[in-house]
């Protein structure tokens, strides 16, 4: 009865709860039968608790999803989070704490694999080197090859195949057929009511086949095909055979038109005479198509993905409105009105999970988001180690998912590197190639309701006027256009979309914020991150407590920063937020090799004995003296200075 909430034990003894009184009221005959009902309720609750306990946790789902990311492949934290139904912070915490073997294959959106990874052998190597050793290729800007990218829908499919996550009641899919070996199959599809894949080399397999079994078949049947092409075939065949279900919505494009239909049958093999449509599904197509130019930008952006089978479930609601417009009864036989469906550009609110992951207050994060809503350019500035880049990456990932790029400015960085410029070709000559900012803008223009972020690390190390050029104007006046440096006579001017956001980081130990020109200051919101001010001042203590480590290390950092007079050279908490520092001898080693060299550079030539003033033994003595003074009730007087 206690388990089902009818009675409870308090300091005064056992009491009947309100739920218990209601149960008694339904058994007026001296409570007869109440024990039997309590037993039934208890058994029902037991079964429910057991079912919940048997559900896979986010960590077990993450481990299972990573099994599908093989050597030579990579994915992102945001896509893993989407696949397992968690937030990015949960994924990061599990990757960090559980030490999964494939964790180095998981990148932060916009990351260039610039970190390091601990191999099972115990060797610490750069992440990029580990990925390249496994076969991952990187382009000239340092980004991993997209053809080796395992996407969120593939991770989700793998979990669904294993029965670890439930399938949605309905999905939407794009199946291409307008250029199959030079033939447009769409008129035949619509006339005969089906969709198809060529599948010219694939043996006949059962619909619903699981991905691992299908992979072995594709590897054998397409053995002469490149690795990237086999991976694409596996995704397409698996979706067509197993993931597409009857009742799913299906779209295709041809001659500037989008056609919508509903899947009505299972996958089947039909030996087509021309060999172009051997694997088929029946489809009930809507009678008319929709002009490509009238489609919502979000749909058009998804149609740009260059695979033969593309999941479009995120656009399901928009596509269902198109289908409804086709199937609705229209009076007076007038043609249906093409619905123009748009979504408003919004930035998500800050969450408690993100605040816990970043060890800052939710209210501070929300203020950063509000600043971006008001002015889509923001700079985090402060000394090294205050978490500027870390917060920028995770905040951007929270707001924009995988639509994040990261670049780092340096004195040699130029407009051509950042936006666009002519680059030599192997065969001779030059070609105008886009840089990371141009790529971000082009992607954002295709999906105006979706936020896109560009993170500029060490923004003050570059010559900003040289790098931004005429784009400086657009940072403040986005509704207007400018002529680009490399514009042609056909260009009508360039505008900066409202859904492009920029977060910069500025290391004040390299150059004071006061040296940034007024034009830059006017176009960006500046958010300080200083070790002795919120939110940074409490980060280390929170992290140590959450990690069950010695919080006394935070006292050492606070005492060290009290002794540093220049606020731009105070030491940030991230130097102490590495597990290696909290191993035996780790603090002493890090203090000697990371902390003191920074301060020696700061005091170079001024005669300060850095080791005597800032050495670990000195700081420990100061902390101990301060604690002794507090215990003696002296009001926190300053202890003697060992220096």
TrEMBL record:
Which GO molecular-function terms appear in the entry?
ATP binding; ATP hydrolysis activity
Recorded hits in Pfam families, A to Z, give: AAA_5
Query: Domain AAA+ ATPase spans what residues?
Result: 374-530
Kindly list the residue ranges recorded as spanning the membrane: none
CDD domains referenced in this protein's UniProt entry, alphabetically: AAA
User: What's the protein name?
Assistant: AAA domain-containing protein
State the species of origin: Propioniciclava coleopterorum
- Lineage, please? Bacteria, Bacillati, Actinomycetota, Actinomycetes, Propionibacteriales
């Amino acid at each position: 009865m206690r388990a089902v909430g009818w009675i409870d034990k308090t300091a005064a003894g056992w009491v009947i709860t309100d739920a218990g009184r209601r149960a008694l009221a339904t058994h007026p005959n001296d409570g007869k039968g109440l024990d039997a009902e309590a037993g039934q309720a208890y058994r029902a609750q037991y079964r429910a608790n057991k079912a919940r306990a048997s559900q896979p946790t986010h960590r077990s789902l993450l481990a299972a999803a990573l099994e599908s990311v093989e050597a030579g492949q990579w994915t992102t934290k945001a896509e893993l989070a989407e696949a397992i139904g968690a937030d990015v912070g949960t994924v990061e915490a599990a990757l960090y704490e559980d030490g999964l073997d494939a964790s180095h294959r998981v990148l932060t959106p916009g990351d260039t694999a610039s970190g390091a990874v601990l191999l099972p052998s115990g060797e610490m190597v750069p992440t990029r080197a580990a990925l390249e050793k496994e076969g991952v290729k990187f382009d000239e800007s340092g980004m991993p090859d997209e053809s080796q990218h395992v996407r969120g829908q593939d991770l989700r499919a793998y979990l669904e195949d294993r029965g670890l996550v439930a399938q949605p009641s309905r999905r939407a899919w794009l199946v291409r057929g307008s250029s199959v070996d030079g033939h447009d199959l769409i008129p035949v599809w619509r006339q005969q009511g089906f969709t198809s894949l060529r599948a010219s080399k694939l043996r006949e397999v059962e619909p619903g086949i699981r991905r691992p079994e299908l992979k072995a078949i594709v590897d054998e049947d397409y053995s002469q095909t490149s690795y990237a092409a086999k991976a694409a075939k596996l995704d397409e065949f698996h979706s067509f055979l197993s993931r597409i279900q009857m009742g799913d919505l299906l779209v295709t494009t041809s001659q500037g038109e989008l056609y919508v239909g509903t899947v009505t049958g299972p996958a089947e093999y039909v030996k087509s005479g021309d060999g172009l449509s051997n694997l088929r599904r029946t489809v009930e197509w809507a009678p008319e198509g929709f002009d490509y130019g009238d489609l919502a930008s979000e749909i058009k952006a998804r149609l740009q993905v260059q695979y033969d089978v593309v999941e479009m479930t995120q656009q399901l609601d928009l596509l269902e409105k198109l289908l409804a417009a086709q199937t609705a009864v229209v009076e007076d036989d007038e043609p249906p009105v093409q619905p123009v469906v748009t979504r408003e550009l919004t930035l998500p609110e800050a969450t408690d999970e993100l605040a816990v992951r970043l060890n800052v207050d939710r209210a501070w994060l929300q203020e950063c988001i509000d600043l971006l809503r008001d002015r889509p350019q923001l700079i985090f500035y402060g000394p090294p180690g205050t978490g500027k880049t870390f917060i920028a990456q995770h905040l951007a990932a929270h707001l924009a998912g995988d639509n994040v790029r990261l670049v780092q400015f340096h004195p040699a960085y130029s407009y051509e590197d950042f936006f666009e410029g002519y680059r030599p070709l192997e065969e001779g000559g030059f070609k105008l190639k886009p840089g990371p900012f141009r790529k971000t803008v082009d992607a954002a223009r295709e999906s105006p309701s979706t936020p896109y972020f560009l993170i500029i690390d060490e923004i003050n190390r570059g010559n900003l006027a040289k790098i931004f050029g005429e784009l400086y104007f657009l940072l403040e006046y986005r509704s207007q256009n400018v002529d680009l440096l490399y514009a042609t006579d056909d260009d009508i001017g360039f505008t900066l979309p409202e859904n492009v956001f920029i977060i910069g980081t500025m290391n004040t130990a390299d150059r004071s914020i006061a040296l940034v020109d007024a034009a830059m200051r006017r176009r960006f919101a500046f958010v300080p991150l200083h070790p002795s001010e919120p939110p940074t001042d409490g980060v280390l203590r929170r992290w140590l407590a959450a990690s069950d480590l010695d919080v006394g290390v935070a006292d050492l950092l606070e005492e060290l920063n009290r002794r540093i007079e220049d606020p731009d050279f105070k030491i940030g908490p991230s130097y102490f937020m590495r597990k290696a520092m909290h191993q035996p001898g780790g603090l002493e080693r890090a203090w000697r090799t990371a902390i003191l060299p920074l301060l020696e550079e700061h005091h170079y030539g001024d005669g300060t004995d850095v080791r005597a003033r800032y050495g670990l033994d000195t700081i420990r003595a100061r902390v101990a003296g301060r604690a002794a003074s507090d215990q003696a009730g002296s009001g926190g007087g300053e202890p003697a200075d060992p220096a």
